[in-house]
Specification:
Structural class: alpha+beta
Number of domains: 1
Radius of gyration: 13 Å
Distance between the termini: 24 Å
Order of helices and strands: EHHEHH
Length: 105
């Protein structure tokens, strides 16, 4: 794993997405692994992105490491939909971990 292949991402997540992402954590690194599962198991074009209010709203800034290529694809997908990358990441996490057959492990 070279530095060029991976990048550190900080995303502002809603409380719901943060809770879903952190559910059943067992060890350091689980957040990144759960995030990678969500982005690989979700159709990014099909997720519903909620409008983020301009007024005060509680956000949890969460950091994780992902492959640079995946980050670039996320950024392009967010730009295509006219949203911030954090909003797309938030929607992906909620969509993936809110399904009835929860992939919580």
């Amino acid at each position: 794993m070279t530095e060029e292949e991976w990048t550190r991402v900080s995303a502002s997540l809603s409380e719901k997405a943060d809770e879903l992402l952190r559910a059943k954590l067992r060890r350091k690194g689980d957040i990144g692994e759960r995030f990678r599962k969500a982005i690989s198991g979700t159709d990014w074009d099909a997720v519903e992105i909620l409008q983020r209010r301009k007024t005060h709203q509680a956000w949890k800034v969460t950091g994780f490491t992902i492959q640079r290529e995946v980050y670039d694809k996320l950024r392009l997908a967010a730009n295509k939909r006219g949203v911030e990358i954090s909003a797309l990441i938030d929607a992906i996490i909620i969509s993936y971990y809110s399904q009835p057959d929860d992939k919580s492990t």
